[in-house]
Amino acid sequence: MRLIATAVVFCLLLMTSTSALAQNVNLTMYYPVAVGGPITKIIDEMIADFQKDNPGITVQAVYAGNYDDTRTKALAALNAGEPVQLSVLFSIDVFDLMDQDVIVPFDDLVATDEEREWLRSFYPALMQNSTVDGKVYGIPFQRSTIVMYYNKDAFRDAGLDPESPPATWDEMVQASKKLTKRDASGNVTQWGVHVPSSGYPYWMFQAFAMQNNQVLMSGDGTEVYFDHPAVVESLEFWRDLSHAHDVMPRGVIDWGTLRQKFLEGSTAMMWHTTGNLTPVRNEARFDFGVAMLPAKQRRGSPTGGGNFYVFKNASAEEQKAALQFIRWMTSPERAADWSIATGYVGVRQDAYATPALSEYVEGFSAAAVARDQLEYATAEFSTFETARVKKFLDDAIQSVLTGQAQPAQALQGAQAAAERVLRAYK
Amino acid sequence: MTVVRVSNQVYGWLLFFPAAVMFFLFTHYPILATLKASFFSTPRGARPARFVGLENYRVMFDDPVFWKVLGNNFIFAAGTIPLSIGLALLMAVWVNGKLSGRSIVRTAYFTPTVLPMIAVANIWLFFYTPQIGLLDGLTGLLGFPSRNWLGEPSTVMSCLIVMTIWKEAGFFMIFYLAALQSISPELQDAGRIEGAGRWYFFRRVTWPLLMPTTVFILFNAVINAFKLVDHLFIMTKGGPNNASSLLLYYIYEVAFSFWDTAYASTLTMALLAVLAVLALSQFVYLERRTHYQ
Questions:
Q1: Would you state the pLDDT for residue A21?
Q2: Which of B248, B234, B247, B239 is nearest to B156 (CA)?
Q3: Following CA atoms A367, A370, A375, A381 in sequence, which dihedral angle do they give, to the nearest 10 degrees?
Q4: Closest approach of chain A CAs to the CA of B65, in angstroms?
Q5: A172: part of which helix (H) or strand (E)?
Q6: 3-class DSSP state of B148
Q7: What is the rounded distance in angstroms from the CA atom of residue A36 to the CA atom of residue A221?
Q8: What pTM does this model have?
Q9: Closest Cα partner for A210 from A118, A275, A145?
């Protein structure tokens, strides 16, 4: 008996002494991939570099599917008590993650002035989805805006100036009419413009609404403004592109196949994420350009993409290591490399001052459009129960684009449904 | 004597025990847990689940999307099941005969079955894409205008049904082929001597002998009609405006996009109820009319 007791004590001593000796911190991070290209390879290389610079910290990055899958897996892992200390998740998940009580604000993690300085170094437009009640919950990483890709050859054929893409709604309609080509029997062979409406209709719609000078939700995530007259007018305009002006096909336009349609020349212009820039650049067999989205009252596009979050259940030591890792991943040089490799926006101004990115932008001006548009950008749609609320909006948009409902009536329905859900969070 | 019997019984129960535990853990316990969850609210962060009684069921009965996807699911089942089974039988009879290159034809029919659903959905997504898609290419040759196949509520469900039949028929064909080959050739000879025509022989001999296989296939087809959702993730995400959404896809959305586990449990109970009713009616109706060898 005494022997066993001694052995136990000995083992305990051994364990405490080794854990005191070992300074190694293990971090596990889930991350999504939502665009083309060898993203997992790029991430793995970045992490290998980080571990070389920071020998005490090991990071295990787990690719977990798209944004929804990654959130599901991270939350499931947390519920099961598995060690996950940080993750890259949808920037718009912030209210739900707060509601689940699983994330910590970065203001509580930063200690030095230098770290506080770092918190302020990102583009303000990208921080809108990160900041709630004055506290920063997410750090911008893979972020995007919507841009307008256009076929310069098609512009030349239609007698339009390929160097001055349409800058207003009216100009876009006029140009689209010239760009829409029909064959002898009246079938369209080339459309003027495509705005995708499957997958993320709310995202495209936010751009229209913003251009008409109206946001769709309040900053605290408890109110939506779907039935505002300017919002209704925006949806009327989107519908009229196909139903009145006949420059876009009717019905829902698929997000996933649109890039291919643009590359095949069956549409002269498309609205899409800047995250598609590198694939379009690699595959286009014609001269193409990238422009900011057109304006009605003003220019506008929502931001999009993923942020870093740090989880509450991590120990103080792990949270410190996570902060160190995130700071390293978002340093100007890393942000520049990441932007070049993917097409995502460099998340901070000084990234564009690095030799690598400034040289890249000089040789390929399209890479700067998404950044320049940040000046007019707004937060991506995000409320409490955001997936459910934005589904009401998605359904309303699709019912209008397919001609099943009128804009005002559909948006009033979505507004009422959203208010029912959000009542609990006021 | 009794000691032997008792020890035999214990032995039997011990053999049965591991399987029973697995069965309970992975089949019955989840059903009971789901049933329980459907009477509670969804726990979120600091707010634990609380008992709400039938509230979730009331919400479900008032939920227009639920009724929409349930209706869609019945249309999907009615569209896919008879056609894929009929086509499977036709193909099986065809490749059961003596034709040259038989194994190549069999393989061709079976190929869709071995492809992963996600890959199939990606291929068909491009078939259906307006202007650049295969389907528009074909209808364009005939002079029809381009159609937005997956983007219009009026066509999207038919498109999914056609794709599903293409995928399912080859799988069911294998069962029919096996059944056809187990039918004794002596019956064929006897039929010929008695002067039965091919159609008469099929109707009075082959088809009744295939009945047990048909029952088996029908069960599988019904289950598949309610569990096939992979293609929706790729092709339509249930759109436009829920026109192509199915019950299981809606459950996924509620559970993992909306993170409303309580309501998802309620919807799951509805799905279980539908399947139970269908299974029961199939057993009661078909068992009586099926002759097993």
A1: 41
A2: B239
A3: -160
A4: 10
A5: helix A169-179
A6: coil
A7: 31
A8: 0.86
A9: A145
